[in-house]
Design brief:
With 257 residues, the protein is of the alpha+beta class. The chain is 26% helix and 23% strand. The strands form three sheets. It has a five-stranded mixed sheet. A four-stranded antiparallel sheet has the order 4-5-7-6, covered by helices on one side. Strands 2-3 form a two-stranded antiparallel sheet. Strand 2 and strand 3 form a beta hairpin. It is globular, with a radius of gyration of 23 Å.
């Protein structure tokens, strides 16, 4: 005996089928960039391993460096140097948000740089005398003597501003909450980091939904993973190995500095 399906039930079943199909499509259409480099992350503290989270787009610096090794505006849209070359005034971008939704203000940047002075090693050689935040968009750094490399120091990942929510009650980093195009999602010590696209990013949005970075110490292994399609980018491989891969594989590999 065949049971008749009521129209309302039929509509409900059809709706569920469509939702399941759309969910499957959404999962399948997620774009993930798989990257490997020689070093796995050892800590979440950006002032000890700032290069990792800057390269993954989680954090940004006040001053950035372009491919020609020229300094350019970052989170500071401009900066100036006093006549005696000992006072640096940086003007922060307006409308920049940390990943937790709090605004980028000079007071937060001041606290991060003061922590770097206290706990980090990057500023050990910098004759930094004082850090002031006269208003939310202005940061003033004073040195005891002229120190031209300061702008370059401010482009290093260890100086990147992070939100107050990055720290626990004892001042230790529990989650790097930056301003970059990617948001920290998860990590495994000395193994991998996963970041997802920041749709509220102040600049140009990322073209992929997620980046999965893993530390693979051996360059030959990284290249083998690239050839096998397990990676989209293998960092720090010798150009000669890419040339050999191009001569043997149907895919073409491109080396970048």
């Amino acid at each position: 005996m065949l049971l008749k399906i009521r129209p309302a039930l039929r509509i409900l079943m059809l709706s569920l089928s469509i939702l399941i199909a759309l969910a499957g499509y959404a999962i399948a259409s997620e774009t993930v960039l798989n990257v490997a480099g020689p070093w796995g992350p050892k800590t979440l503290d950006i002032q000890k391993a700032g290069y990792v989270f800057k390269r993954l787009g989680v954090t940004e610096c006040l001053i950035e460096v372009n491919q020609d090794l020229e300094l350019k505006p970052g989170l500071a849209e401009s900066w100036s140097l006093s006549d005696d070359r000992k006072t640096w005034t940086l003007n922060l971008r307006e409308g920049v948000l940390f990943h937790d939704g709090t605004p980028l203000v000079a007071g937060t940047v001041k606290a991060v740089l003061e922590r770097l002075q206290e706990k980090g090693s990057l500023f050990k050689a910098v004759p930094l005398e004082s850090i002031a935040a006269p208003d939310d968009r202005t940061l003033v750094l004073k040195t005891s003597e002229p120190f031209a490399p300061l702008a370059a120091y401010l482009s290093m990942g260890e100086t990147a501003p992070v939100a107050e929510s990055s720290f626990d009650a004892s001042g230790e980093v529990v989650r790097p909450v930056g301003t970059g195009p990617f948001v920290f999602e998860d990590w495994k010590v000395k193994d991998s980091v996963t970041v997802t696209r920041n749709d509220a990013y102040w600049g140009e949005k990322a073209k992929v939904d997620k980046v999965f970075y893993r530390g693979v110490p051996n360059a030959v292994t990284r290249l083998a993973m690239l050839r096998a399609g397990e990676l989209d980018i293998a960092r720090f491989c010798r150009p000669r190995r890419f040339a050999l891969s191009n001569s043997r594989a149907s895919s073409r590999f491109t080396a970048r500095p």
